[in-house]
Design goal:
6 helices; alpha/beta; TIM Barrel; globular; 156 residues; Ala_racemase_N; 41% helix
Length: 156
């Protein structure tokens, strides 16, 4: 009920951190879900099933190996992997640093490689490094730094 309220009843545009959550929301009629963790090989079959079932099931990538894995495991005709490039802007949990020279190359490889198989939807950053903050000013500083890093990367 909370997710339906948060999406204005559209049941679209939600982010989940586990595939169990994705399956739960899919069963509840949501058909636009982002799995906000770079797809591990051992979860590929589950992600493929959700991508085939839903109108938009989106995943994160943060490495050339992840891109190659999706390219080697295409979805059936009429479907393609919908991908967000995961940037690590200080969280140090998942993602590629926007200042890493490989990050821009990876973004280009996703966007220009095989768009009929893998389509770049956008760039994603998570401010998980705010969890240890003790005040609003510290949270806002991290949010500003993350926003600046993402904008600089996208501009490049």
């Amino acid at each position: 009920e909370g997710a339906a309220l948060a999406t204005g009843g559209s049941r679209r545009g939600i982010v989940v951190s586990t595939l169990a959550e994705a399956r739960f929301f899919a069963a509840g009629g949501f058909d636009d879900i982002l799995y906000a963790f770079p797809v591990p090989r051992w979860r590929l079959a589950e992600c493929s099933a959700l991508a085939q079932r839903l109108q938009h099931f989106q995943v994160l990538l943060d490495s050339p190996q992840g891109l190659e894995m999706l390219l080697q495991n295409p979805l059936p005709a009429g479907k393609r992997w919908l991908v967000w490039l995961k940037l690590d802007c200080g969280n140090a949990r998942a993602g590629i640093r926007p200042s890493d020279p490989e990050a821009l190359a990876l973004a280009r490889a996703i966007a220009q490689g095989s768009p009929e198989l893998v389509t770049l939807v956008g760039v994603y950053a998570h401010c998980g490094n705010t969890y240890g903050c003790r005040d609003i000013a510290a949270i806002q500083a991290i949010a500003r730094d993350t926003t600046a890093a993402v904008l600089e990367f996208v501009t490049a």
